[in-house]
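Throughout our pipeline, every protein is held as a single compact record rather than as scattered files. The record that follows is passed on verbatim for readers who wish to inspect the format:
___
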Amino acid sequence: MTSTEDRPAADASPSFRLAFVPGVTPGKWVRIWQERFPAIPLTLVQVPAPDAAALLRDGGADAALLRLPVDGADLSAIPLYTETTVVVVPQDHLLTALDEVPVAELAEELVLHPLDDPLEWEHPPGLPAVERPATTADAIELVAAGVGVVAVPQSLARLHHRRDLTYRPLLDVPVSRVALSWPEEHTTDLVDAFIGIVRGRTANSTRGRLPATPAPARPRGKGTDAKSAPRKGAAKSGSGGKNPRGTAGGPKGAKGGKASGGARGAKRGKPRRRS
């Protein structure tokens, strides 16, 4: 395997392609990328969950936010977070009376298990359906039609939200783990930079090999310096123009500062005679 330390930054693609599976929301990481590397476009590629690993192997994306497990030693993965598993039911279902549903409560329910089910069941709960739905979206439609219930990660329940359906957390069941994955032999500087973002590294971190691009300086308006200079000068003369007795000081070299400076002070006439 080629060491990434020996690969120059120039070999990285001009844009970073990030794939993501349904339910995963990469928005916060994308915003950080755009702030740190505004000159490097980030392209989002939505991919069905079963096809995410193949997309990485075929070079269709530089990295992917997908659900574990990832098969094959050629793909690296960093677990990011664990999702809550919920059961999706009609609004008027008896299970809606519970805040959390023990899996034993599904024993007499027809539980749908779509072919793209991201949950790894050792013993699927409930009564099996005659035919498995092709996708989670199809399973949700069947639940809305009154045909059984379905257990999914909470993000998928939100993605396929319907007004006539609701969901409750499901206890003692498998969960889905979301991870960042990429081909191990193609850990480019761009991939390493995105790894730093999802791991919470700051823009000034020395661990990344791709330096962050600072945002362009905001241009200053015309006349800003001209206006600010008199204020600064006034502040200095106001603070330093008083003598220890607190009276206003005149021109430099005036004795005692008794005479006030100014145009009239420069021209002195004869003293007036008192009547």
